[in-house]
Amino acid sequence: MCQSIIQKVFITLLLLCSLAAYAQGQTSVTGTVMEGDQPLIGATVMVLGTGSGTVTDLNGAFLLANVDPTDSLSISYTGYRTEVFGLAGQTNFTVQLVPDATDIDEIVVIGYQTVRRSDLTGATSVVKAEEINKTVSNSLAESLQGLTSGVTVRNGGAPGEGSVIEIRGAASFVNTNPLYVIDGMIADANVTFNNNDIESVQILKDASAAAIYGSRAANGVIIITTKSGRKGPIKPSFSITSGIQNIPNRWDLTDANGYAELQRTSFTNSGLPVPPSVGDDFDPTINTDWQEEILRTGNTLDANFSASGGSDALSFFASASHFRNKGVVIGRDFNRTALRINSTLNLGRITVGENLVVTDNNITRPLGSFDTGNPFFDMATMLPVIPVQGDRYISDTNPAGWGIGTVDAVSFSKNQVAVTDLLREKVNFLKLIGNAFVKVDLLKGLSYKFNVGIESSNDLAKGLRRFGVTQFNAAVRPSFVQDVRVDFGSLLQEHTLNFDRSAGNHNFSSVIGISDQQTSRNYTLASRSDIVESNGVPFDQINAATGESLAEGGITDDYRTIGFLGRINYNYAEKYYLTLTGRVDQDSRFSEDNRTGVFPSIAASWRISKENFFNVPWINDLKINASYGTLGIVTLGSWDWRGTINNNPRAVLGSIGVGSYQAGLVNPDLRWENRKSQNYGVQASLLDYRVTVSAAYYNILSEDALVTNLPIALYLGNLGGSPPVNAGSIRNTGLEFEAAYTQQAKRLKYNVAVNVTTINNTVESVGNQGEGIDYIQTGLTRSRVGESLGEWYLLQTDGIFQNQAEIDAHALEGNLIQPFARPGDIRYVDVDGDGQITDQDRTFTGESPWPTLQLGGQLGLAYDNFDLSAQFVGVFGNQLFNSVRRELDSYQNTNFRADVSPWTPQNTNTDDPRIGVATNDQGLVDNARFNSDRWLESGSYFRLRSLQVGYTLPRAPLARMNISSLRISLSAQNLFTLTKYSGLDPDVQGNGILERGVDAGNWPSSRIVSAGLNLGF
Amino acid sequence: MKYSILFLFLIVCCLSSCDDELDIPNPNQITNESFWQDGIDAVQGVNACYSTLHRPGFSRWQPMLYDLRSDVGTSNSPWSELANAISRFIQPNSNFGPVVDVYVDNYVGIFRANQVIANVPGIDMDETLKQRVLGEAYFFRAMHYYHLASLWGNVPLQLEPSTPADLPPNSPEAVVWAQVIEDLTLAAPNLPLRYSGADAGRITRGGALALLGKAYMQIGDYGAAAGALEFFFSGEGANVYQLTEDYSDNFQIFTENNAESVVEWWYADNPLEFTDQDTQTPNHNFGTSLAQFYAPPGIGFTDGEALRWPISEFEEERTLDDMRDPRLAATYLYNFTNEAGPDATQIYGASWTQRYGADNNRVFFRKFLNDHHKNEEGFRSTNNYRFIRFADVLLMYAECLNELGRTAEAYQYVDRVRARVNLPALSDVMPNLSQAEFLEQIKHERLLELTGEGHRFNDLKRWGDLGPQLADRDPAFNNFQIGKHELLPIPQSDLDINPNLTQNPNW
């Protein structure tokens, strides 16, 4: 209803405006754009302040009609310095463009508008596609690691798994996912997105830059512009990269002999009979290296074919790509096939275009289940005296005889080889993202655009469980096959009016518009038990199974966001800049009273270098800016504010009776999360534009932060998960610094870029948690007012008791603080001074899961036809919780570190406490207490993220084969890492925002060595 | 001209109120506001209370906390943290999962009961049914607080449907017991004596009064307890209950809901289940996994097992025809479950000797296992848990009368229990016991009659017998500190959230 009114008004507006356009009368100009004596094809020629323009043809020539003799032209071309000049009545030009490595004048997409990079007032980072494509990665986020300041990325690792990305710190208790805008469509650039299609990436980091996206922009916005066609002959190109992949580190663990020896020591120390598995029945022929069984050499293949071209009226780009990754862990694979096409049809005043991507993504992995486990945990803890398979394990419940723990070799670790055999899943995501637009130039400088975007995804996860067990004492479940289908749809409709005008030194550009997005998701699950197998091959179709059938389904999401947006950019003589942005959003995910949010922002810049008094010859450009504004974010499900009845309980009586009640608690007063963001920055170009530096200070206050994982009291009897509540506020402040140096000599060209990020995260409020409580407790961490989010909150250890005298001395008023301790046990600090060690003795360890400093660096070097590049990443000052080492060093039902050196009266110079069996031994139980600082380790690292050498073949011999360019390259990813961390990889995703530093068997970053070929025709 | 167009555009933007298009109903579930409309809703509401009974904390771990922390059971689970927590008075920490699960499930049941108690009175429905539903809900709230008072003592009292911001203080244990008594007193008159058909298994007036008797006994008010229990002897319940002829009928699947059953937790098989979580899907486990966790090695996990010393107490008794007390074989699986010895003793289809060797001295709780009808266990045992049997009521009543100085009067109730298993009447073999001697005899009778049914810990507590001196029977009691281990620690996570809560003494 409301939509149709708006559309009618727009049609009326269009008619009015086209009439008005006839009233104007102007001249035409022609020209040619050259570099030296070469014509530049496809250079952009814009009439400043109007939004109208064209591109140069095969001869570098352009024609612009309806130009006012007082207008100014802007001629830009990627990789060249933009030229701006007034027409001053002249009608024919030859323009020389100069190559430019600084990109200061490149056109930057800022959402519904474009501006020159030099005219930016907000904090916007631009990342080049060529840097992104130097790494082989699952997702765009993974490729962005280290490439720009203020962006923190932690890798997922598994084939087809995304990364965690934070822009300017974690400002939410719930999620840090930025908004992705792909060619104007709001859609997630997850693993289904092909990085090779990227033309450029802009990251909007402050309120001024992001406010145009209002209620969804608080975690920052990543705008992706994909490649598009340029006017000119059809240019096909082809590239292929193929590599091998492995996990560079392994745990150093005891083999069967070493394990048996320590296990015998353990039981003997505890006065218990040695289990037969390491005693009388020890079988030296069984010596399983579980890491060897589970890890493998993976490989990657990335092939892309594209073609682009265009005429005056029509330009197009099309690409096809295939990416595949055989994972470094058995049973895990990913592949993606993508097709992309876009075209733009220019019909004078009307421009019509579309952008369409179809991707088919396939993940193979073990089916998630209670007994799936984690290969990076189990491969360390599983016992070497257990074989992968063995006759003695064959039983009714374990027909394949998978090696699992037994009564005399207790291990609850999952046999990961069995997991990949018994639990199988193939996931297919078929995804379509596209948008189409019509743009009408109404008046000089005034244009209207109607943009429709869709994202549609059909997911099918086919799961199969064969009959058998993967773990000692695991429940036996029947085999089954299941299909889970998810349909996702999102429809975006946007109407915008852009108005650009220059008058003398006054330059305006502005946009207003309406954006309406509807998103829905539903799922259906169907399964049947008791699968049929033939010669060991299971039939994975539901109809083939013979047991009980099961169906589930529902609409998991259905919501709509309607926004009214506007922005005015004004500058005076490119010296003084002012940007006003505002957005009003309404969102169905809140109750009517809380539905509307207002998100304004303001930014101002001053180009000091344009002032007459400024006369520093080595500073070419100097600009300072400041911004302030409010952003929002919804971190909720579609109906979280409304309590509902759960019909799943059942009364088991004379007959089974349906039970109904409100199982999950809700908070009806949910509101927007607001971010109040300040940004102060300075940018400069020095030494004839060879050096660019920029620095920014930001201060972002997140208010009404939603807490969805706030621990909820058990006495409430809630079973719906923690109800979200607007509980907290978090402040992130920090400095960002970027510097780049570029030298373009005749034969030697090189560039160096570094970026430095500091993020200081402070919890300002946790809402009403109760009298005297100024924190949120989450497992191993506490988020207390005045501290950072999720700081380690643990028991403090203080070495090892070397003798009984030390135990006796650890007393309060004559009572032992650790009465169960024996020499060789861990001493804990009685922080609360009550004479015993309890959870009340947990305290802030003073160590943080958050880095104090993050570094990124890029290096490029080219000599004649050879080129070399490198990317570095550094993270410093954070502490990780090594949960796998905790399991190993608990000594209970696990393999051991090869270098473990348990305390004995003769071996006192060690950090490892005494070894024994913990049953009925409180001392040993205490030694392995989970919530202690014994498991914290420095997570600092410095990594050579990528190293690439390339050779571009000389043009002349290729030209005879109609090849315009050919480059071959060799790359190595994650070649070396400097770190003291004892786990496999310090780059951990952690356990959500509030336990960011927990390494519970995190999937480590792979080392990838690859060779690539790029071919242009 | 163009400014007016812009102006028009802005007006359109501002005026188009799209609120109606932003009211998107939830198509998956009915909202709270639309529920609680009629009698069907009321019955479904109270049905949710019954669903708590097959949740894993309640049906698996809770019986273990009573049996294994007493002197008749222990745990040699390879999961050493579990063994320590549920049988050795060593909590790895106060958030330990299996223990916390019991606390949670009791509060889940309370949340369910509170919703019925708050919403059903306003429903326009059949008044008798309304009162019955409310009676059932009051019973469930009382029963869950009974367990919380027994295990944790000083717990927060939630008497209204929970809201996320509730920060109640602890209530002293005595206040929790008072609430149990108040709720059961409210429940009893509204509950029927019996049910039939589809309603079989719902809570009866006898069930509420038997639990009321238990609650009064735990706080030492034997007069009030006897008053509640008189229902079974001189009240309306006098002809409702009787002892089964065969003692073992009370622990087997073919003789569930029999004449002796006063309160019984029903279990059933749901072949479609894939989870124990009863709010996740209708396809959850309707059974209990207790049998899987108690069953002997090779069949189940054996996370809990029995201690051997009570066997000699059983062997003190001989039946009138000079046979062994038949309750011994019904209570335990061990090498002489069959008096002929380990070769003749069948353990799930194989002899004791075959499975464990003749000399293996371990003893396993047998009640509520499924060895009487199959040779394996699983997570879906359908064997109903008889929470309160009439035999228990008889022994409770006898204990009350003895405490009230009516020892002579008490004999007849003990004798009924003994007569069922053909033991000589106490009045014949031990006449004229003093009050103290009779209490000691009650302890013996309850051990033989009720071991492995989850009553032992509360019995020891009521008798003041919990303490390190029990270490002779169960070495775990070496770890028992008087004034601390009578109660479990309040979960630290709740203390972290709610500053009005305090930890139990000495934890």
Automatic annotation (TrEMBL), chain A:
Matches recorded under Gene3D superfamilies: Carboxypeptidase-like, regulatory domain (2.60.40.1120), TonB-dependent receptor, beta-barrel domain (2.40.170.20), TonB-dependent receptor, plug domain (2.170.130.10)
TM region positions: none
The organism's place on the tree of life at top rank: Bacteria
Pfam families: CarbopepD_reg_2, Plug, TonB_dep_Rec_b-barrel
Occurrences of domain TonB-dependent receptor-like beta-barrel (ranges): 470-975
Keywords linked to the UniProt accession: Cell outer membrane, Membrane, Signal, TonB box, Transmembrane, Transmembrane beta strand, Transport
Subcellular location: Cell outer membrane
Keyword field contains tRNA processing: no
Span of the signal peptide: 1-23
GO cellular component: cell outer membrane
InterPro entries: Beta-barrel_TonB, Beta-barrel_TonB_sf, CarboxyPept-like_regulatory, Plug_dom, Plug_dom_sf, TonB-dep_OMP_SusC/RagA, TonB-dep_OMP_SusC/RagA_CS, TonB-dep_rcpt-like
Mode of membrane association: Multi-pass membrane protein
UniProt domain TonB-dependent receptor plug: residue ranges: 118-221
Keyword Signal: yes
Primary site of residence: membrane
Protein family (similarity comment): Belongs to the TonB-dependent receptor family.
Protein name: SusC/RagA family TonB-linked outer membrane protein
Lineage: Bacteria, Pseudomonadati, Bacteroidota, Saprospiria, Saprospirales
From TrEMBL, chain B:
Pfam families linked to this entry: SusD-like_3, SusD_RagB
Domain RagB/SusD: 237-507
Signal peptide (UniProt feature, chain positions): 1-19
SusD-like N-terminal domain boundaries: 93-216
InterPro entries reported for this sequence: SusD-like_N, SusD_RagB_dom, TPR-like_helical_dom_sf
Principal subcellular localization: membrane
Alphabetized UniProt keyword annotations: Cell outer membrane, Membrane, Signal
Localization of this protein: Cell outer membrane
CDD domains: SusD
GO (cellular component) term, any one: cell outer membrane
Family the UniProt entry places it in: Belongs to the SusD family.
Protein known as: RagB/SusD family nutrient uptake outer membrane protein
Naturally occurring in which organism (per UniProt): Neolewinella lacunae
Taxonomic placement: Bacteria, Pseudomonadati, Bacteroidota, Saprospiria, Saprospirales
